[in-house]
Amino acid sequence: MSVHLSGYSAVLTDASYTAFSEQTCLRTHLSISTSMHVVCRSIASSLDPALLKAWFHTITTMRTELANWTARQSKHAAVAYPLITYLICMEENNTFSQYVDTLVDNLHRQLKVSAFGHDHDLQYISAHCQQQV
């Protein structure tokens, strides 16, 4: 039983419900098999093909909004780039192919700027994100 909402709340609701189901089943005296059945059914209901389109749309929207925010507020790049990297890796293949080069270029630019400005945290994060892609 999963409630499907639109946007960020759908992703958070499905994830929190799945975590709640798993923890509840493991704390009760249900067998491991029964608890895994609950988790599998919950995840399967979230992966309904009709809902996958909404999932990818939500991921794209989140990534786009974060990228725009980071472009306007570069001081938050250290926080935003790891999430942007993970989100772009969760995109559909054609969307991933379309935007991965831009992401790597931006990360490389941040790597050079942070090295010049001696921002070692951002330098590390940029290198780590490039490695993840």
List keywords for this structure.
133 residues; 2 domains
Q: What does this protein look like?
A:
- This protein is mostly helical and 133 residues long.
- It has two domains: 1-47, no CATH class; 49-133.
- 82% of the residues lie in helices and 0% in strands.
- It is elongated and about 55 Å long.
- The model is unreliable at 1-8 (pLDDT under 50).
What secondary-structure arrangement, pairings included, does this model have?
Layout: H1 8-27, H2 32-46, H3 49-72, H4 77-89, H5 93-116, H6 120-132
Query: How confident is the prediction overall: mean pLDDT?
Result: 75
Quickly give the structural class.
mainly alpha
What portion of residues is helical? over 70%
Major sheet size, sense and barrel closure:
none
The arrangement of helices and strands along the chain is HHHHHH
- What would you call the shape? elongated
Beta strand count: 0
Overall tally of structural domains:
2
In the predicted model, the low-confidence regions spanning at least 5 consecutive residues are 1-8
Radius of gyration: 18 Å
Output the number of helix runs.
Answer: 6
Strand content: under 5%
Distance between the termini: 34 Å
Q: What is shown here, in short?
A:
Helix content is 82%, strand content 0%. It is mostly helical and 133 residues long.
